[in-house]
Write a structure and sequence with these properties.
Layout: E1 2-7, E2 21-26, E3 29-33, H1 39-43, E4 54-56, H2 62-65, H3 68-80, E5 88-92, H4 97-102, E6 109-113, E7 119-122, E8 125-131, E9 139-145, E10 148-152, H5 162-165, E11 171-175, H6 192-202, E12 206-210, H7 218-225, E13 232-235, E14 241-243
Helix pairs in contact: 6-7
Length: about 240
């Protein structure tokens, strides 16, 4: 599997960058995880939007879905310019009825529902879900392909059930919206210490901190996570590529 960080900011994108969006590729199949503000602009540095094979959405906050409508318009315009890859499937939960319905657009995009009991196949990827602790319904995902695995926490406070769910993953792509001395639980987010603890307890081979805050020294997040986890810790960066 290849992971490309398209966007990694929490809440809203830093100038010239993007909020949550991650491109997964395996055996020629492309899967976009979340589609936040600025994602479509930066995605085009890596892939033509008409070449996407599927999209997977964790929840409906704008920093994870703001560019869905923009992607729909891109598919429409490219169709009139003679480029189309058929109907793009988008997988999401139905606990926000309006949000779910908004994912279906003409013949260009079609919504498909998942829930916490689902185990779905998207191309070469096998995906299972865990509900997170967040102000709105949100799901983390374990994505497996080619004998390798990723746990994408999406947005959440620390949750004990994450440990067995993410056991022995090659990569923990973990939200980290707060510093270690802060209380993130009320906001439905994790601190650097929470992320390090989760990486340690799951036995993850690598930890990438994402959904980053707009304040403070981001390098501090890494040093704090390293007090809880002895493995490789990295900050997500725009256009960062990781082979798993």
């Amino acid at each position: 599997m290849k992971l490309t960080i398209v966007g990694h900011w929490g809440g809203y994108p830093k100038a010239g960058e993007a909020s949550s969006g991650y491109l997964l590729e395996h055996n020629g199949f492309t899967l976009l995880l979340d589609c936040g503000s600025g994602v479509l602009s930066h995605l085009q540095k890596h892939i033509d939007p008409t070449k996407l094979n599927a999209v997977l959405i964790s929840h409906y906050h704008p920093d994870h879905t703001a560019d869905i409508g923009v992607l729909q318009h891109a598919l429409l315009i490219q169709y009139f310019l003679g480029k189309s890859n058929g109907t793009l499937p988008v997988y999401a939960h139905k606990e926000d009825t309006h949000g779910f319905r908004s994912l279906t657009y003409k013949d260009f995009m079609k919504a498909h529902a998942y829930n916490e009991q689902s185990k779905i196949t998207i191309g070469p990827f096998s995906v299972s879900f865990v509900k997170t602790i967040h102000p709105v319904p949100c799901y983390g995902m374990r994505i497996e392909a080619g004998g390798k695995s990723i746990f994408y926490t999406a947005d959440s406070a620390f949750k004990e059930s994450f440990v067995p769910f993410g056991k022995d993953v090659e990569l923990l792509l973990c939200e980290c919206n707060f510093y270690g001395n802060m209380d993130a639980s009320g906001a439905g987010h994790m601190t650097s210490l929470d992320a390090g603890k989760l990486a340690h307890e799951t036995g993850a081979k690598k930890l990438i901190l994402t959904h980053l805050p707009h304040f403070g020294d981001l390098k501090q997040l890494v040093s704090e996570a390293e007090t809880m986890y002895e493995g490789d810790v990295q900050l997500a960066k725009q256009d960062m590529e990781v082979t798993i």
